[in-house]
Design a protein that fits this description.
single chain, about 150 residues, alpha/beta, four-stranded mixed sheet, 6 helices, 4 strands, globular, disordered C terminus, binds zinc ion
């Protein structure tokens, strides 16, 4: 990640912390799969049709952080990380085709939570935490719209 930028709205420190923690969590898997992201941005909550997108294979990845529908007003870290993983797969594959979902399966939470995170001594989010977000993840996959240019 060369650059991380938030929208500069209310409680911007929370947005920045969320995005930085997300970047930190996916760092091992990005290194392992040679996924590079030039700019990681907070996506405007007004963007109704998606929760994340990836422009030009990692040139610009945007992730939605603010969730007016939740009690906290934010998506939680598990959701943000899973959307991020989805967008990272678009570094390799544009469309949501069979090959895309194969990579998605390979890069799934097991891989992410065990091998990569333990070698980096990352605090392990409880497995149940990720399981509980799997439905959100699947929904996010459907709602993602990648830019294929
Ligand atoms: Zn997608």
């Amino acid at each position: 990640m060369h650059e991380i930028a938030t929208l500069g709205r209310a409680d911007d420190a929370t947005a920045r912390r969320l995005l930085e923690r997300c970047a930190w969590h996916v760092q091992p898997i990005m290194r392992a799969r040679r996924w590079r992201v030039a700019t990681l941005l907070e996506m405007k909550p007004e963007q109704r049709d998606r929760v994340g997108d990836n422009y030009n294979r990692g040139e610009r990845v945007r992730i939605k952080l603010r969730n007016p529908a939740s009690d906290t007003g934010w998506y939680d870290l598990g959701h943000v990380v899973l959307v991020m993983l989805h967008e990272l797969v678009h570094n390799d594959i544009g469309p949501h085709n069979r090959a895309f979902f194969k990579v998605r399966a390979d890069a799934d939470a097991d891989d992410f939570l065990t091998s990569s995170s333990q070698t980096r001594r990352r605090p392990q989010p409880p497995r149940a935490h990720f399981d509980s977000f799997r439905f959100v993840f699947d929904d996010a996959w459907k709602r993602c719209r990648a830019s294929h240019r």
